[in-house]
Amino acid sequence: MYDVIIVGSGPAGISASIYVKRRKLSVLVISTKNSALEKTEKIENYYGFEKGITGKELYNNGINQAKNLGVELINDEVVSLKFLENFEVETINSKYEAKAVILATGTNRNAPDIKGIKEFEGKGVSYCAICDAYFYKSKDVAVLGNGNYAIYEMEQLKPIVNSVTILTNGSKIIENRHEDLQVIEKPIKEVKGNNKIEEVQFEDNTKKSISGIFIAQGIASSSDLARQIGARIENNNIVVDENMQTTVPGLFACGDCTGGLLQISKSVYEGALAGLSVLKDIKL
Amino acid sequence: MSVVNLNSENFTNEVLEENLPVLIDFWASWCGPCRMMAPVVDEIASSMEGSLKVGKVNIDENPELAEKYGVMSIPTFIVIKNGKETGRTIGVQAKEEILKLL
C-alpha cells in the first residue's frame, strides 16, 4: 500500500508528488501521459523562461524532476476509484491501495454533445455503471465511448443486464479484446424517449432500442473518478475546500479539474497545496 | 427526529399520509456516493426536526418503491408533500442544494 496515489502527471500532479516525496512518504503517480500541457506548442506566460518553453519540454522536465527525487511513476490508465478501508485504485493492468488519493488528470474536454443526453440524465443516462447497473437488470443498454474506460464500464454491466452495446459515435473502437464485444461505430444523431430513454437514432436514420446509456468517453477523467466515489461535482468541476480536499475525506483534487484558470501557474500552486494538505491529513 | 427506514408496509402511513413534507433518500449499501451522502441526510434530519420528515428507502430491500417512483440512479432524493412528489434531485450534493427542493 502507498501513502499517496496521484492520478495524472501534469504540473498539478507532479508538483503534489514532489511535496509528498520530499517528506519521505511513499507516492505513486499513475498517468496515461496524455497531457494537455505536452500538446501545447509554446508557453510564454509561465515564470522563469526568458525565451518561453515548449509544453513537451516543460512536461518532461517535471516528470524527470519527480523521478530524480525518487517518485515512482507508471504508465497506466485508471478506470475505477473506490473507498473500502483504504482507497482502491484500479487500472487496466492492476489494482493499488493508498491512504490518500490526489486527482490531477486535467479537465474532461470531451463531454458528449448529443441531443437528448442532458435531458435524460437520471432517466436512462448514467455516468456510473457500478452505481446504476442495478436499475437495468435484464435490460438492453449501451456504453458511449471507444476506449478502455468504456470497456471497463461494459464489464461492470455485463453480469447484470441483458445486453451491452458499445456506441463509439463515429470513432474507432480500441483494439478489440473481446470476441463477443458488440460495437456500433456509426455517428449518433440523438437519444430519444418519452419519460425515459427508449432508443438511439443514428445519423443514417437507423435505430437501436435501449433502456439506458452509460457515458464513458475517452479516458476516465478526475471528475468521472470523483463521481464514482461520491465526491461532489459542480459544473463538471470537482468541489474542493481551501486545502484542495474534495467532499470525500482523504481525496484531494488539483489543477484544471477543479475549474478556474486553466493555467500552469494555478496547477503548480494547487498541486503544492494538495501535497502539503495530504501530509497533514495522513496519520504517520 | 431520526431518519425513518421506509418500506412498502409503512410507506402510506409514514409518507403519503404525513402532514409534514417528507424527504426520501433512495440508496443502497453498495453505492459509494450514497454512503458519502448519509451524514448529510442525517444532518438535514436533525437540523429540520419538526418541519421536515426524512426517510430512507433501501432499494435492494424495496425495489417496488424505487420502481414506483421511477428511480434509475442513486442516490436520488425526492420530496413528497401531501402525498405528491414536488421535487427531485440526483447524485451527491450539498445540504443547501437538497434543502432548495423544499
Write up what this structure looks like.
The complex is a heterodimer of chains A (284) and B (102). With 284 residues, chain A is α/β, with parallel strands linked by helices. Chain A is built from six helices and 17 strands. In chain A, strands 1, 2, 3, 4, 5, 6 and 17 form a seven-stranded mixed sheet that branches. A five-stranded parallel sheet of chain A has the order 7-14-8-9-10, covered by helices on one side. In chain A, strands 11-12-13 form a three-stranded antiparallel sheet, with no helix packed on it. In chain A, helix 1 packs parallel to helix 2 (55-68). The radius of gyration of chain A is 20 Å and the shape is globular. Chain B has a single domain, classed as 3-Layer(aba) Sandwich (Glutaredoxin), CATH 3.40.30. With 102 residues, chain B is of the alpha/beta class. Chain B has a five-stranded mixed sheet with strand order 1-3-2-4-5. The mean pLDDT of chain B is 94. The interface between A and B is medium-sized, with 25 and 23 residues.
* SS element count, helices of chain A: 6
Question: For this structure, what is the CATH class of the largest domain in chain A?
Answer: Alpha Beta
Work out the radius of gyration of chain B.
Answer: 12 Å
By CATH, the topology of the largest domain in chain A is FAD/NAD(P)-binding domain
CATH class of chain B: Alpha Beta
Which chain pair shows the most residues in contact? Answer: A-B, 25 and 23 residues
* Separation, N- and C-terminal Cα atoms of chain B: 17 Å
